[in-house]
Amino acid sequence: MNRELTQFLSNQTQLKEVTLFNSLTRSVASALGTSAHSLRAVTCHVGPKSVDETAHEVVETIAITCPGLQEFTTIVNADDFHFSDVEGLLRCNCLRDVHISYCSQTSRLEQHHIQAMGSAWSGVESLRILANNIFQRPNTPISILTTIAQCMGLTLKVLGIEVCVDGEVPMSVSAQLVNLHSLIIGDSSRISPGDEEAVASYLAALCPHTAKISMKTRDLSGVSTRGQPLEGWNMVATLIRILRGGDIGFQQETTIGSA
């Protein structure tokens, strides 16, 4: 199957969008090069679920082969997702829409990761890095949103991220997500009791008054996670509404991934 697919793609020269449901291999990724001048969007699985190649190797091959990509959506089939799995995408300076879904992550997104993305993707409008496992406990502190605002705040319209709130909530913001339409808090995100008021104030200050702040309830494959406990986020939602004068500012998101 892999050989037939590679041959088929090698014979195409005008592809604009490609969706691959099996784990992508380097040979298939290389075959996309015949459409490099026209290819703008790729949706795929990467990682060793069915092939003995790492996510890093495959993504690097895609980026080298198709540096003009504008949209990239992937499920990373790695035992432990790390930013290095997808850092090859930093070669694709035209990226506007990046959606990464993963199952497990023990490392966290660091400031230098965000700075690298902001530098490489100067026109990025949508960035979603979200777990498809509701039992995953994120390690990335909510303060990472400040770095995202500093590096991508002028262009981002959609942001989806998993965060951990554990007593270290910024008391003020040095930058804002001025053009944000939607902030999606991943449904594995956790908030410690007592942090709700600080989180609500932080998010209300960081996002425009008109931005929708929501909790993801559907993973990339379309599997609903509705009904999972939102813990302290319900209180955050109430507080944001109060801060915004009663406007709806926090709700459950139902349209992430497949409908």
Give your account of this protein's structure.
This protein is an alpha/beta fold and 259 residues long. It is 26% helix and 20% strand. The strands form two sheets. Strands 1-2-3-4-5-6-8-10-11 form a nine-stranded parallel beta sheet. A two-stranded parallel ribbon has the order 7-9. Strand 2, helix 3 and strand 3 form a beta-alpha-beta unit. Helix 4 packs parallel to helix 5 and helix 6 packs across helix 7. The radius of gyration is 19 Å and the shape is elongated. The two termini are 28 Å apart.
Spans where pLDDT lies below 50 across 5 or more residues? 218-229, 252-259
Structural class: alpha/beta
Oligomer: single chain
Strand content: 15-25%
Strand order of the largest sheet: 1-2-3-4-5-6-8-10-11
Shape: elongated
Helical residue percent?
A: 25-40%
Main pleated sheet: 9 strands, parallel
Distance between the termini: 28 Å
Mean pLDDT: 85
From the alpha carbons, calculate the radius of gyration and give it in angstroms. 19 Å
> How many H/I helical runs?
7
By DSSP, the count of extended strands is 11
Jot down its keywords.
7 helices, 259 residues, single chain, elongated, alpha/beta, disordered C terminus, 9-stranded parallel beta sheet
